[in-house]
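User: Could you walk me through two proteins back to back? I'd like the raw sequence and the structure tokens for each, with a short line separating them so I can tell where one ends and the next begins.

Assistant: Of course. Protein one, sequence then structure:
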Amino acid sequence: MMKNIDLNVLRAFFVVARERSFTRAAAQLGVSQSALSHSMRGLEEKLKLRLLTRTTRGVSLTEAGERLLLKVGPYYEGIASELDSLSALREKPAGLIRISAHDHAADTILWPKLKDWLKQYPEISVEININYGLVDIVKERFDAGVRSGDLIAQNMIATRIGPDFKMAVVGSPGYLDANGRPATPHDLAAHNCINLRIPTHGGLYAWEFAKGNEALQVHVQGQFILNTTPKMLEAAIAGYGLAYVPYDVAEPYFFGGQLRSVLEEWCPTVPGYHLYYANRRQASPAFSLVVGHLRI
């Protein structure tokens, strides 16, 4: 029965019950006395109980009305308070924003852009989940994902958050002195290469190359299979073979003499990172702020 009762009518009853006056209650609710009286009669008819006794002096509660006020009133106030709190979220930037990204995007884009900016918004929390797979952000309940521009699903909204970047094949001086430098991507078949596991496909990442009009993918072999860029770099520095990584993360090790770059003319420039997310007609202020700050 209660599921058929309009919450606005219930609210009106509680105001009448507390004010003990249709006149004062109608003024407080912003309705006419006749409309308010009609609503109360409708509520009584649905409950099949008399709740109010109308007299020339005002309004008094019946036993049923008194019980409804005392027993249900506090629950209604709690519901109303919580609904007001939810409404406030539309205007106050607060809440948790979950983002799926792999470590290069997190290290070069998300962390540098968010680490100081977030201090201005203590009510906003950001979770960055490191994942190399092409995550279904809707199914996994992420607010957004970060991927290279050519990997965004067509049904997603995408906004660029980073510039294009170049890839690099790198190895330690000791490894290259002992095994030679590959002249073409085909030469990688004779080298120990450090593979990257892609969880979405359950396989190993194929190294991508391009030169002029020629583009190819090479499936490499090696002793190590890893699933993060930092570990691939660590293995390359330790002399375990060649690694295929973003140029900018390897560059500091070129200056330190720990790594050398090979196949430079074959290594492609990759479309920059994009933040992608499902259509959100009523995005929270927190989410809108994060997207606006990351966008370039």
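----
Protein two, same layout:
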Amino acid sequence: MTSAQNIPDIIIAGAGPVGLFLACELALAQCSVLILEKEGQPDSLLKKLPFGMRGLSSPTITALYHRGMLQELELHKRMKQPHSIPVQQAKRPAGHFAGITLNYEDIDTTQWPYQLPGAPEFGMMSEMHELETVLTKRAIALGVDIRRGLPITTFTQHATGVTVQAGDQSFETSWLVGCDGSRSVVRKQGGFEFAGTEPEFTGYSCKVELQDPEKLKPGRNVMPTGMYFQSQPGYLLLQDFDGGAFHSSDNPITLEYLQTLLRRISATTVTITSLQVATTWTDRARQATAYRNGRVLLAGDAAHIHSPLGGQGLNLGMGDAMNLGWKLAATIHGTAPEGLLDTYFTERHPIGAKVLDWSRAQVAIMRATPEARALNAIFRDLINTRDGATYFAGRIWGIHNRYDLGASHPLVGSSVPDFEFEDGTRLGTEMYDGRGLLLNFTNASLQTNNNQLKYIAKPVKDRLGLDVILVRPDGIVAWAGTGEGLEQAISRWFA
């Protein structure tokens, strides 16, 4: 049992990227955080393999940049031309929709307003293991207590907090957040409804040794009986449209089973000589109908699950953490305006619903039916146009994400542009401390006595026609204009 003086403000279930990032946000806002993780060790072979790579979208990249962690990712360090589209090279893949590749040089970034030269990349790849390592290091540095090998088994809410049972230990906390994945114990025991659709396929991620890898085509191959993807010899992704039956069973993935499946899907006689690691997944698409029940909240896969097609699950969860962190911290400190914590659900649930539909749409044109193949051909034609590629890239990279905050200015509800000040510094570095910003790009007199805001009054090289901007701690523009309505906006978000 935790002693009274050591009771944390928040307990987070799960030390994956979402739980770790949320912990960092809360600790940055001077909250005490305890993470309880069921796994005893953070290392996982699957996270280190090529299919442990994840595409990071623009909102995730921006969030890491706003907290000074983007530069710690090795793949970011190696990027020579951030925020650029190569035009003198052979076509380079920029992502896919249902296995249909879109290319960088087909994307017209001028269609996206408020993008500035020198800002962080639109999209990049990161290894799950490396991302978790960076986040763990930052969480520990901020004072987060991470305890592994302690799965939460049950919990009870009461008037002032939550009692959490993990193994043979009991913990008290003011708030509990479930970041414990698709099979979330917190969600199941917290009274949350998980609505959605059942799967159509079982997916497989595996590392094998092949006797004759040349029999398999490289890249993603949609076949009449399913799909296989070979990133390099022996690293395979498979989709079998069995209604998710194998994933739901307790049957082990044996070498013999996998070889039979691979031969059927690929229509080859390829031979597997060794199976090193394999796991399954599905396109089940479900979302919690509420993200909060009293003092218990959900984030990441605990709040929504879907097919990993397009790699948007991690980004969706990281967005949850960035949105929830400052709002929960303000609630704990008693500085939150009325209803602030409720906006976590009203802002994030619609974003999650769009991602689930994006996943369902991809599955619909990957089925082994004449209708799906006909739709697939039409989508392929659209993606190979400039406007089509730009639209799909904008969706995949999260460029079009915007919260409806009830304001008329098109920038409100979107991530603040990375303005470059005339002294050469950039706005993103001003957000490392997690505070809200009041930006004044004019010579007009402007003051606020709200100590939750950092006031910055200095010129920028390109102010994009903007005079004054109010920025929330999560980097979202809360208000933009010339002065009228500013105080009401400050009161709405920073009581």
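The chain is about 30% helix and 25% strand.

Let me know if you want the two compared in more detail.
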